[in-house]
Amino acid sequence: MHELSMCQSLVDAVLQEMGRVQPPPKKLVAARMAVGALHQVVPENMTFAYEILTKDTAAAGSRLDIRWIPVTAKCRACGWTGSVEIPFFLCGSCNSGDLELLTGKELFLENLEVEQ
Amino acid sequence: MKPENIKVYRDLMGENEKWAAETRALLQKHKLIMINLIGAPGCGKTTLLESIVGMLKDIRVAVLEGDVETTRDAERISKLQIPVSQLITGGACHLEAKLVHYALKDLPLEDLDLVVVENVGNLVCPAEFDVGEHAKIAVLSVTEGEDKPLKYPLLFRECKAAVLTKIDLLPYVPFNIDACCENIRQVNAGIPIFKVSSMSGAGLSEWCAWVSKFQG
User: Fold this and answer.
1) Beta bridge partners of B135
2) Do A89 and B187 touch (CB under 8 A)?
3) Which residue in the set B1, B3, B93 is minimally distant from A113, CB to CB?
4) Distance CA A51, CA A40 (A)
């Protein structure tokens, strides 16, 4: 259940960002987080943690949306760039394992949907 | 009224990263190397540590033992007459950077060369958290199955070396070690793989040599 630790950071960030919105919003409808597909995040665990951790806060009752970011890489051997079929981490062109990760490890809050 | 979208960008590992960065600075100040052993419960992490501490003769080692409960592993390691702290997570399935940082600060850093973190037995969660280490090391025993690198790709992707333990049991278990190495290669080509037995001593000198030379 590492989602609980991650979700605590998420809820902290949501509440801080809500505090910055001017004029102060009436309520939060949804928060969207971006998650790189290399992270082992189980969406059900994350939304469950979100529901619990936002209880009795300004974000209570809001929805959590998750946007997945695919794993992409660049091959150091042949220069190929493209998406990688995890768990395999191999070049889609020459099958080399010498890849530079481009995307797939992101974890950030990217959007708040508020009712003014 | 129509809901309004507000774009934000907030990294969610920021707090953990902050502590990990402090740990890296502390390690650098004292010219220390820190490695983080990650593997399933019972894969032989503590036994591996017990068997290599005596072999790392010219290297002054300390251990940070992560567990959900009990100080048993720290008691085992303290018999080797080296500094050790037990980090009890009290239910959490992994170590986070802040806890490791505070434990590290309590070690006699001036008198050390290497700090080994033994993470909570778990192939999933510890792989997600940077604790400021120079290398994560995946530990997998031959009783677990050769497909584990594919089932837990993040750990095998993040690690800088893999150690296959309990190879003395190979004659008794249906474990295809070549297939396992190939699976590791497909997830993270190029990392060294050490095949060891803490019971027979096989492969331990190669593993120790790598640890001794590892410079982060």
Assistant:
1) B35
2) yes
3) B3
4) 19
Question: How many whole angstroms separate alpha carbon B34 and alpha carbon B104?
Answer: 10
| Contact status of B90 with chain A (Cβ, < 8 Å) | no
Residue of A nearest to B186 (CA): A88
CB–CB contact A10 B12 (8 Å)? yes
Query: CA-CA distance, B31 to A104, in Å (whole number)?
Result: 32
Over residues B154-172, mean pLDDT? 97
Which pLDDT band, with edges at 50, 70 and 90, does A1 fall under?
low
Looking at this predicted complex, what is its ipTM? Answer: 0.85
Q: Does A10 touch chain B (CB under 8 A)?
A: yes
Chain A residues with CB-CB distance to B6 below 8 A: 17, 21, 111-114
Does the CB of B169 have a partner CB in chain A at under 8 Å?
no
Q: Which of B1, B92, B157 sits opposite A116 (nearest CB)?
A: B1
DSSP A28-86: EEEEEEEEETTS---HHHHHHHHHHHHTTSTTTT-EEEEEEE--EEEETTT--EEE--T
Residue A110 at interface with chain B, using a CB cutoff of 8 Å: yes
CA-based nearest distance B6→chain A, Å? 5
Q: A87: cis peptide before it, omega within 30°?
A: yes
Res B35: pLDDT: 98
In CATH terms, the fold of domain A2-70+104-115 is hypothetical protein PF0899 fold (3.30.2320)
Q: How confident is the model at residue B2 (pLDDT cuts 50, 70, 90)?
A: confident
Radius of gyration of chain A (CA): 18
Predicted confidence (pLDDT) at residue B19 exceeds the cutoff of 90: yes
Q: How confident is the model at residue B14 (pLDDT cuts 50, 70, 90)?
A: confident
pTM: 0.91
Domain assignments of chain A as residue spans, ordered by start: 2-70+104-115
